[in-house]
Amino acid sequence: MAVQARSLIIALLVVIAATALARAELTGGPNTWRTRDHSPGTCATYGICGHRKDRDVLNCANNTAAQPLPQHAARKLVDACPRLAAERGGAGGMFCCTEEQIDTLARQVQIASIFLVGCPACAQNFQHFWCMVTCSPDQAAFTNVTAVQRAADTNVTAVASIDVFVGAAFGERFYNSCKDVVYPVMNQRAMTYVGGGAADAQQWLDFLGTVKDARTPPAGSPFQINFPAAGPPAGMAAVDGDVPACWDAALRCSCGDCPDGPQCAPPEPPPPPPPGGCPAIGLGGHRAPSCLSLAAAAGLEAMDGEAGDKAFPWVERHLRRWFRKQGRICARRPGLVLALAAGAAVLCALGLVKLHVETDPQRLWVGAGSQAAREKADYEASFGPFYRIEQLILTSASGAGAGASTQTGRAAIVTDANIQLLFDMQERIDALAPHVPGTDNMTATLDSVCYKPLGDACATQSLLQYWKMDRGIYERGEPPFFTKLTPEFCFGHWSTQCRSAFQAPIDPHLVLGGFDEAAPGFRNLSVDASALVVTFPVDSSPRNQAAAEAWEAAFLELARGELSAMAAAAGLGLSFSAERSVQDELARESYADLGTVAASYLVMLAYIACALGYLPRGARPAALLVTGRASLGLGGVAIVAAAVAGALGLTSAAGLSASLISLEVIPFLVLAVGVDNMFILAHALERRPPDPAGSHVGFSESLPERVGAALAAAGPSVSLAAAAEALAFALGGLSGMPAVRNFSLAAALAVLLDYALQMTAFVALLALDERRIAARRLDALVAERYAPWLLRPRVQAGVLAVFLGALLASLAALPHISKGLEQQVALPRDSYLQPYYADVFGLLRVGPPLLLVVRALNVSRSAPDVDAVCSTAGCRDDSLLNRVALAARVPQASYIAAPAASWLDDFLAWIAPEIPRCCRAFPRGDRCPPPDQPPCNASAAACADCTACFRAAGPPGKDLLVGGRPSVEQVRARLPWFLEALPSEQCAKGGAGGYTDALQRDVGDPSGVAGLASGVVTASAFRTSYVPLGAQADFIAGMRAVRSMLGRAGAELGLDLYAFSVFHVFFEQYLTIGAAAARLLALAGAAVTVTIGAFTGSAWAAVITSAVLASLLVDLLAVMVLWSVQLNAVSLVNLAMALGIGVEFCAHVLHAFLVAPGPSRPARAAAALRGVGASVLSGITLTKLAGVVVLAFARTQIFEVYYFRIFLALVALGAAHGLVLLPVVLALAGPPSMRRQGQEP
């Protein structure tokens, strides 16, 4: 990519002018130079009369008859202009050019062929057009000399301006044959280089004919060549004739260069939209006809209720017997039980010494076995890590100061003052030299850590590159012309005359932002751009990591301080980022809301301590000192903390890392489960009074018997809930996302440990506390008012109508749930990345880079791989690169912005005999560079014996290129040469820099290219980019579209392909998040259903509970839609937790209903509410409500969005489903009692 485009265009236009005519003495009087004879067989110019001061040739104005060519010159004409020679008599014909002109023409057409050789029709049309303008014997019929000048070296009159008349149809066909040809090394249209980006035939011809003096700096034709749009005057005829289309059979171009060809398939359609049903959570129409199937994901199964046996089933009976014995033991030996429980908890918690809190986003959300993770690992193993990116975005304020107003109302950013400010900032950045930790005296500077693909200059993407990062060039111009280049000029000539310090062109879209070229009010980049973007690519090799991270830290400190102050002083905004920024901010986020989380838990603990105690009726407030159970509450909370610590200890000991989610959600979950169990157990004991009369004078039942009876009554429902929750969470361990997997396993262990400690240690604490007090407490609200009111027929009908309506409305909302996790939400509100991401998504006009990797590319001539990949002439019309080029024509569907840069296409062009100045060899067999590179440019004699590597015809030999395709041996010999060849004016196809990292290297292979010794390139990459991606949905859709296209291409072409982009590894989860959510919830729901059925012996009870839980989850998903909560790994964890807490809301009410005696469902439902309703209300609903409200004040948006909003909705919906909907359903259609009429538990 080190090609000097300015010189290329100069040279190309020189041929257009310099090959026009011959040297002649003008001896007549005034105006004898004018073209007066326009008859066929007449020349308007002939020969070369001299040179300009800059040594460019000037042609003679000579209206003379066409002349015959000497034999050796005629042979050169046949080689340089085969079509013109064939049409005009061959070697014996008459022509308007000399041998010197033919040599110049051949040399310069070869330069143009560098850009056009991939499309034979375009290359031949281009060649033939200039052959006609230069050598046609009818030249005067379409050419008219309009002005002359004196040659600087000969003082002879020479051409200053000519008119060349080209037929409109001819020009259009000529332009159309070349307009889509791709220049692979720069991943852009060749028209950008040979036509200045011309959009039609007239613009192209005008560009080619512009005299160099009209450009700054001077570049172009040595004299003006006009191509008048109006028709020719009387007596003249416009250039016309056959112009082969790019799809003509004999000269057919590939579909990448000729997408309009009839043989080319239309661009592939975008991936089909998600099927009907519940696309938001991955339930497509092929399996689920509607969103109602979400209920099935919770394990629903249509089953008929059975009357069943009124006696307790086997499981219930044995659990009661076990817990009765266990309760007696805990009450008799509470000290021993507590000691054993504490020892077990401490033993489990010992694993905390290995606790590791993971903050790397990739390790949190991407499983090692995921496709994106494998592709990233493969890419880095083949080509090394992708370079690190540091960025500054300088923005003008809305209505700021004076100056032009942009489309968005902001001030124009491209001003001299702002450019000078950018130079000042760059000087500060260049001066950074932090010490590299772990070294003695090593410092890191931008120059030492930056990415340098083309030599010694950093590949910084900045507006300043138009002046080679040099303030002097910006202010005074570049030697030797010292012509100041304006930003406006460079925005139009960035690919030719405003090259960067590292010799690559800088597209203005890379360094400007805040404009919309498609908007009706767009004027130009200078006026409408409102942002300057500076990108510093940094070498990401392992040896450079320590230095890069040290420099990034200094860069961020500078940007936060001095650079931000400089921008503010100028009335501008500055946002910035470094490669390490996201991980640094996520680590900071882990501690940003510790105070908020702690306050939330303290509020819940205070409520628990107060709610467990009570004030006996008629007692004085001082009685709370006796009946208050603050110590019991604190003991219960300590049990919850021990369960959480033990679970994290066990997972840490097993090598599983913790995350922010685990540390903040699991305590919340276990507290909800544990507190509920505390209230259930405490209230169960309260319902076993010391004596029937309640006089407290003598015990008719001992404390151990009371505790045993209470545990026998409550233990089965607690066991049911714990088993269902633990199994549901354990199945989440099957998730491929590490954060979800580790959370699920830790949550399952925490629930089990909490259950074990609640049934032992808390029962012991309860017995100790009961020895201190002997009063009972009745919940008058639930027992006397709520249950009877709820079970009225009209109220029941209203409840069912409300919940059914909510369910249907929620199902309708599900397709609108969005996927992703906005960066702004994941970061602290005060993060410096917040304004940065706002600028990136709102102002930048370029998309992420996209690398298409082909593995095991067989380069032998007999294998189909090369033609299945390349996009030059002779390649398959449906080849990989042709498909990419076609996809780039519909970026709104494909998300691909441009055709791919292809080392393969450029290599085939570099070795082509038609470009003999590229691949050359010295007689001794080593590589000979082009004539304009050392040592050839220092001495013509040094390379006089160099010959082209290959010939297109002749006897067999090592240098014969058969069919334009090299053999394996030829590839082995010349591909290393190509990769070390620097691009230049004489040969712009060199692979050094542009393709340095495009092929996997192997020092063990003789060629240096991995696998080439066996004729198979192990891995090679083809570079393109996505369109600008703003919303999370754009990233997801773009990744899906590219994978879909490559999947079809790989299958149809027989290629092993994959796509790599830096964001793939983070966004892959969203391609399957819907299916993952459905699978996780379905498995968990099925586990809950089976567990309830096993514990209760009633399939109907399991179905009812699962249906209520399914309704809860559907409503919670709808709340996510209404409250703008996206579906991602964080919300998926919360959904799994919601299922677990939903079980806690429902299981105790269900169990109480099943064990209540009597055939009347409403009476049993009322008994269930009286028995456990207050416990559920106090233990879960009010406890969680108190703690959730505090989270609304979190500093980090992820807490406010994903914890406060979801937890608040969960508490409200859980209480509504467990204490309103479930009792109504049980009263109307509940299963029969588990025990015989009148049998006591």
UniProtKB/TrEMBL annotation:
GO terms for biological process: sterol transport. Keywords: Disulfide bond, Glycoprotein, Lipid transport, Membrane, Signal, Transmembrane, Transmembrane helix, Transport. It is a multi-pass membrane protein. It is found in: Membrane. The chain crosses the membrane at residues 598-615, 622-645, 665-686, 707-731, 743-768, 795-816, 836-854, 1073-1095, 1102-1123, 1135-1156, 1168-1194, 1206-1229. The keyword Iron-sulfur does not apply. It comes from the Eukaryota. Gene3D superfamilies: Multidrug efflux transporter AcrB transmembrane domain. One of its GO terms (cellular component) is membrane. Residues 1-24 form the signal peptide. Belongs to the patched family. This is SSD domain-containing protein. It comes from Elliptochloris bilobata.
